[in-house]
Structure formats: C-alpha cells, structure tokens
Design a protein that fits this description.
This protein is mainly alpha-helical. Helix content is 75%, strand content 0%. It has a domain of 62 residues.
Length: 91
C-alpha cells in the first residue's frame, strides 16, 4: 500500500540523514584573494577601455603601449596599497 501524504513537515528518517550530509556549503575565499582578484579585474578593464579609446587616434601599437602601461601602473599602486593594508591588519 503506497504512503499517503499527511501534510506533516517531518521527513522520513532516511531523507533527513541524507539532507544533513549533503547540505551545500558556502565557498569562503580569503580577503586577500578577493582583493587581488579585484585589482586584476580592474587592471584588465583599464587596459581594454583605454585601448578602445586610443587605438583610432594613436594607432594600435601606441595605444597598446599606453593602455598596458596605465594598467600596470594602476596594478602596482593598488597591489602596494593592498599589501600595506594587510600588513597593518596583521599587527
């Protein structure tokens, strides 16, 4: 005879044990990883946007040099600030 749904919120014992084991976990990344990934994404965005803006006026090679240099300078400064912030927090 099949089970009838009685409307109760209790799960059968087998399913309750399974849901306790298979509960999804939240991925937690360290703050430094998120910070460096953000700097990298911003670096890429600066490089692409500057290249798009400058390549018609300056030519492809000069625009590439300027946009890459600006991205590297930003990345250097932002990474230094990130490292200094982490070192201050460690003290």
């Amino acid at each position: 005879m099949p089970r009838r749904d009685t409307g109760s919120s209790k799960q059968p014992r087998r399913l309750a044990a399974y849901s306790r084991v298979m509960r999804p976990t939240r991925l937690r990344l360290p703050r430094t990883v998120v910070g460096f990934a953000t700097v990298g994404l911003a670096n890429t965005a600066i490089d692409v946007v500057l290249f798009w803006l400058l390549h018609a006026r300056l030519g492809v090679i000069v625009a590439n040099v300027v946009s890459t240099s600006a991205g590297m300078a930003f990345s250097f400064l932002a990474t230094e600030q990130q490292i200094a912030r982490n070192e201050r927090a460690a003290w």
